Amino acid sequence: MDRTAQQPDALKGRIDVRLDALMTNGTARDGLVAQAMRHALTSPGKRFRPVVTLLTVQQFGGDVATAIDPACAIEMIHAASLILDDLPSMDDAARRRGLPTTHRLFGEDMAILASIALVTRAFAVVTATTGLANDTKLGITARLADAAGLAGLVGGQEIDLRCGPELNDRQALRELNRRKTGALIGAAVDIGLLVASVDGPRADKMRDAADHIGEVFQTVDDILDVTADQASVGKDVRQDGDKPTLVSVDGVAATRNGARFHMEQAVSLIDGCSPVAPALAPYLRTVFEPHLDG
Questions:
Q1: What is the pTM of this model?
Q2: What digits encode the pLDDT tens for the residues 65-87?
Q3: Which backbone phi and psi does 71 adopt, to 5 degrees?
């Protein structure tokens, strides 16, 4: 059992170590697909989603050690989605996390196979997690599948690829953001709640907070796409082009104000849950607030 509160940097370090181990122990060590998987999964990143899961577990006094593998599964789903998002048929990106995108290094064919393999590996990792009841594993698996599918990442990407003038509306854009970005962040919080056995009003507050976190995350990403350079964010910028975003609809200043609102709503809801280890709200401020000034 591991119920000692740890800071986000320490949790991220544990995730990085475990991701490396899961790629070494659970997959073929050679071959282009395995190499592409490792490149996409273990390249330097914030590990925002798995850290949110572990901080949610901590917040309610749960066992962080038991949550490590489900948190890593979330990162696998996220990495798989980035591989696809970067493909020439999607965003045609050249850089991700400061490195060449997976398809640029290994080819489109190997990149697609690596994405599929990461998704299947994620589900295998959850089912093999020790210390969790089978019902909890089923709940985590169902939540990941929902976030990755038509109701989440896939559905959001479809809207993003085929969007037209009808998307030039705040509510429509928020629905896009909810699926493409918010769904996996919501799953990250939900999985933390499942591991910590939290339900009822406190879980409802946390799910509402997750909705606001998703809004902040995507809004900040849209802002950085028009205000940052590739070196500072580690990926291609000016990628949205003619696609409508909250920035293109409302402008940078108003979009920042909206992000601040969602940030404060998230923090208020999280703090209202009387956390045992209150590190999640400060972590969100550390991640987002530097991009909300200007």
A1: 0.93
A2: 999 999 999 999 999 999 999 99
A3: -65, -40
